[in-house]
Automatic annotation (TrEMBL):
<keyword id="KW-0732">Signal</keyword>
<dbReference type="InterPro" id="IPR006059">
    <property type="entry name" value="SBP"/>
</dbReference>
<dbReference type="InterPro" id="IPR050490">
    <property type="entry name" value="Bact_solute-bd_prot1"/>
</dbReference>
<protein>
    <submittedName>
        <fullName>Sugar ABC transporter substrate-binding protein</fullName>
    </submittedName>
</protein>
<feature type="signal peptide">
    <location>
        <begin position="1"/>
        <end position="26"/>
    </location>
</feature>
<dbReference type="Pfam" id="PF01547">
    <property type="entry name" value="SBP_bac_1"/>
</dbReference>
Amino acid sequence: MRTQSRRSPRSLVTVAAIGTLIAPLAACSGAGGSGGSDGARSINVLMVNNPQMVELQKQTAANFTKETGIEVNFTVLPENDVRDKISQDFANQAGQYDVATLSNYEIPIYAKNGWLHSLDDHVKKDTAFDQGDILPSMTKALTAEDGKLYGEPFYGESSFLMYRKDVLEKEGLSMPEKPTWKEVAELAAKIDGSTPGMKGICLRGLPGWGEVIAPLTTVVNTYGGTWFDENWKAQLDSKEFKQATQFYVDLVRKHGESGAAQAGYAECLNNMTQGKTAMWYDATAGAGSLEAKGSPVAGKIGYVPAPVEKTDGSGWLYTWAWGIQKASKNSDDAWKFISWASGKEYEKLVGEKAGWSNVPAGKRASTYDIPEYRKEAAAFADVTRDAIADAKPENPGVQPRPAPGIQFVGIPEFTDLGTKVSQEISSAIAGRQSVDEALKKAQKLAEAVADKYEGS
């Protein structure tokens, strides 16, 4: 993933804030998971509390533990809290947790800092896992600068445009197979209010480097902008960055959801499900919820690639993946858990037990050959797979850049920088300041980060 990076990121700063424990499951064991409640083998897993992970918890004891005898002690936290706790435990190499959920943003950085076990030897021995079945873009994104693999995806996603086919048809409109942002804006204007209570589009406006910054940065990329040029010069006040941001802010203010400055992924999903918006640009993971049994919009949604301007594609790439802490004394058992949780048989288990819409897809080519999955995900499966396969973390725009990443910049400082910039963008969406004012402040924040890298 990072082979084209010209500069190496500095060590990740440990975050001290730790959230409240939500759901420790299974019997407790000593730190590091050396033994279960009755002296049996066990591992400690720290993970994010999303629906797919909750389903994993439900299935672990009756399947993985029953098959292997390895107890799994889960600690489950909201996304911001789990990132803080993981960064503290892994940075200190405390060894309290053997396995943690990490994204393709953290894994190359953690690997460079020496906080993770390489998985290459495990993969080589475990031929049944079938690494070749993992989508190449995912394997690449979880491979560090040293060429070694440090993570296995639990599920993967890109981004695309979701739209109400029936609403467009009623208005005599059609969605291009590969829309531009200009075309999307024109459609949003025409369908805004055409159905009572329905806005033209939903776009994230909620502050957060993983909220508004994610979709906005893909728009910046395809408009020809970048956070930093190849020499680490901050570019947030460039013409391209301004054009993209102004377009995004104008679109969501004119034709977007009410309360857009406080709307994130969850709010847009709810708006789309409840028929309050006709289009939504966001994560491909949203499609499963829209098409799930009981969804009022199931069968009414169309899916097309992420809109573009100057690039051929603009979809992001993201995965929640498993990483093994370097300090773990249970790496073999930790790998057994990862192999099971990210394996082909687990996907079939979830499909049969919880429904095929709940399968953690987006990581294996074979998933898209399962007849039951293809039937339930027919509307979005191919578009999702293609978006993930076509994502280009090393070269997502039209100009060279110093670090990889599509919806983020692959440096440790981006969590703080992205969050601070997002607050300025959200303020512009709320109408409290202009885009120029927001980006003037954002540029100074980016320059402070660039000073650490220029000339390195």
